[in-house]
Design brief:
The structure is a single chain. The protein is built from 1 helix and 20 strands. It has 273 residues and is mostly beta strands. β4 and β5 form a beta hairpin. The two termini are 27 Å apart.
Length: 273
């Protein structure tokens, strides 16, 4: 399966305004001309008159009650006074440069599943917002799915039940292709997964089952999501197996903000180097 090729004018009488116009011109000449700009989405400061805007967030999703983390905000018009506002709360912000900020997001900000708007305030103006997603907390080790004789290798489970389910993984592969066979990942290496399925979109959170967090996921950002040539949603992201990761098959688990879960059973196999 291949990845798709990169969705009022007011008129016054000149005679009536002649004296006022001359007076204004004289005043401007005496004081020097100056101007200030105001953008509808927030103004840049510290050397720029452009508006402040957000182009992307990294990461873009986290699990409910996760530990505090550093959020990278990319955009334009950032200045020394810029502050990141996460779900209505101003968070400690560091200016990296005019196109990037980092903000420290506390665990308490992740206490409720759903969508959290992120904006940037600069000199009293606020940018447009981008969405950050918080998915309900699950423990992937507790998700026990067995594919018996004749069963499909992809199973959808729902917590609570979703009828019909909207989140269904259909294939897992490497790089830009996915198929029915499992993906081999050697201990101490990483792999770029290509995951296909209905409901795979920004705001879905991926985990690999197993104890001791020995296989970790680099959660995808918005630009990682795409579709197959047939139009099915898909995404690329990296997983990392540590050098002592337990050998054998693993399940890939995905969850969305509504709490729906889908599992690709045995889709990842940890092998010896």
């Amino acid at each position: 399966m291949n990845r798709a090729s990169p969705i009022r004018k007011v008129h016054f009488s000149q005679q009536l305004l002649l004296i006022a116009g001359l007076a204004l011109a004289t005043l401007m000449a005496a004081c020097g001309s100056s101007s200030s700009s105001s953008g509808g989405t927030g103004g840049g400061g510290g050397g720029g008159g452009g508006t402040t805007s957000i182009s992307s967030l990294s990461p873009v999703v986290a699990m409910e009650n996760a530990v505090a983390f550093s959020l990278t905000v990319n955009g334009s018009g950032f200045a020394s006074g810029s502050r990141v506002v996460f779900n209505g709360t101003t968070e400690p912000t560091t200016l990296v440069n005019s196109v990037q900020l980092t903000a420290q997001i506390p665990s308490v900000a992740l206490s409720k599943p759903g969508t959290a708007p992120v904006a940037v305030q600069t000199n009293g103006s606020t940018s447009g917002s981008s969405n950050f997603y918080v998915v309900p907390s699950i423990s992937p080790q507790a998700v026990n799915v067995t594919a018996g004789p004749g069963a499909t290798t992809t199973v959808n489970i729902s917590v609570p039940p979703f009828t019909p389910p909207t989140l269904i993984l259909t294939a897992v592969g490497l790089n830009n292709s996915a198929g029915a066979t499992a993906v081999d990942v050697a201990q101490g290496t990483h792999a770029n997964l290509f995951v296909v399925g209905n409901g795979v979109a920004a705001g879905t959170f991926f985990e690999v089952t197993g104890a001791n967090n020995d296989v970790t996921v680099t959660e995808p950002v918005v630009s990682d999501f795409t579709s197959t040539t047939g139009g099915t949603p898909a995404v690329n992201f990296n997983i990392n197996a540590n050098a002592s990761a337990t050998l054998g098959a693993r399940n890939l688990v995905v969850i969305n903000t509504a709490g729906e879960v889908s599992v690709a059973v045995g889709s990842i196999v940890i092998t010896a180097p």
